[in-house]
Design brief:
The chain has helices at 9-19, 36-46, 88-91, and strands spanning 23-27, 50-54, 75-78, 86-87. The protein is α/β, with parallel strands linked by helices. Helix 1 packs across helix 2. The N and C termini lie far apart (42 Å).
C-alpha cells in the first residue's frame, strides 16, 4: 500500500517568498527522506533560497538540528512533526 502525503510544498514556497528567507533547512524523518530532493527542487525553482537537506537523525519534534545555526539558516522546516516552523532569527 502506498500513502499519499500533502507535504504542503506550495505553502512553504509562499512562506519563503513572503518572508524573504535566503537559506532554508529541511529536516525529514527516514520515511519521508525519499521526498527531500523533490521538495528541494520545487523550492529552488520558485525562490532564490538555498535549500539544505538535513540528513542526520530525526527522532521526533524535540530532535532539532541546532547545529544549523552555524550554517546561517534562516528557516528550519522539520517535516513529519506537529506544525512547527522555526524562524532561526528567533532561536539565536
Amino acid at each position: 500500500m502506498e500513502y499519499t502525503y500533502d507535504l504542503e510544498t506550495e505553502k512553504l514556497i509562499k512562506l519563503i517568498q513572503t518572508k524573504g528567507y535566503r537559506k532554508v533547512c529541511l529536516q525529514f524523518p527516514d520515511g519521508l527522506k525519499p521526498k527531500a530532493k523533490e521538495i528541494q527542487d520545487a523550492i529552488k525553482k520558485e525562490t532564490d533560497a538555498k535549500v539544505i537537506i538535513w540528513a542526520g537523525s530525526n527522532f521526533g519534534a524535540c530532535d532539532l538540528p541546532i547545529e544549523v545555526k552555524r550554517l546561517g539558516v534562516d528557516l528550519l522546516v522539520p517535516y513529519g512533526h506537529s506544525e512547527w516552523v522555526y524562524d532561526m532569527e528567533k532561536v539565536r
